[in-house]
Design a protein that fits this description.
- This protein is mainly alpha-helical and 277 residues long.
- It has three domains: 65 residues, Homeodomain-like (Arc Repressor Mutant, subunit A), CATH 1.10.10; 76 residues, Arc Repressor Mutant, subunit A (Orthogonal Bundle), CATH 1.10.10; 114 residues, no CATH class.
- 44% of the residues lie in helices and 4% in strands.
- The chain has a three-stranded antiparallel beta sheet, with no helix packed on it.
- The relative contact order is 0.13.
- The chain binds a DNA duplex (21 and 21 nucleotides) through helix 3, helix 4, helix 7 and helix 10.
Amino acid sequence: MNVKGEENHEEIVMIEELRRGPWTMEEDLALMNYITLHGEGRWNSLACSAGLKRTGKSCRLRWLNYLRPDVRRGNITLDEQLLILELHSRWGNRWSKIVQHLPGRTDNEIKNYWRTRVQKHAKQLKCDVKNSKELAKRIQAASTPTVSSEIPNTKGSPHQVTMPQEQAQASSDTMPNSVQQLHKPISSLTSESSNTTRSASSNSPISDLTDYCYNYDPNYDQANGTQLGFTECCPSGYYNQHLSFQEMEQNNQWMSGDLAETLWNVEDIWSLQQLLN
DNA sequence: AACTGTGCCAACCGCGCACCT
DNA sequence: GAGGTGCGCGGTTGGCACAGT
């Protein structure tokens, strides 16, 4: 083989060595650890220095969208939705600009949210999705303030009413996937056995670092129902604000028992990371 | 139980801009 | 000014979960 051929071979090997797809817990730890020590930026060299077989772009995306300490997850509130509609009417698909007014949210999240739920709402309300202001009015009108200030993240109709006998099931069905995964015991999230359902086809254990911990708040006023008793925890306490989930409102039992003690969340990882440091 | 359709979202891709040499 | 590199943005895709049949 000539020199040129050898170079090509090396290039192919390097490309083949690059990992793609879902991030593992080890990779997340490595990335978080490195950024904690050295800061972000220079993503390509960062990826190499951190020992990650990922592109710089991939590392940046992972950090900005999921590992960053101030990333807020959970359902989009009605207020946020209305704000998104307002900002979208102003700037269109300028997601990066829109998320500047939604602290803790990521452009990817808002973009996905828009594509899936807002466009669905527009269809259901027979409203042009481009007419964001009109859509905002209709969504606001369609929402029932006595029920919740939250637009539920459901797979069915956004305003469907869950029957009492279905509550237990519905509460889990309507939970965001990330929240649903919190039901898994920590053992299922370890590297040995963490071929989670999400990653059934993957050979690598998938990180659940992006999952958040929702703590039950005893101050929840069930009679009122306008404020739900779940406090979202973010690593390092960046956020500590109430979230209102309609599904939780209907049934707050899903977070009962030993669940809270067995969660493997970002906070755990940050703690672990501090120990490693 | 098996299959199909739908919803959702993490991750990737391509492009363009800014900066540096 | 040209070329290379890093980065950010918007669009798209792949695949899992779940509901319905």
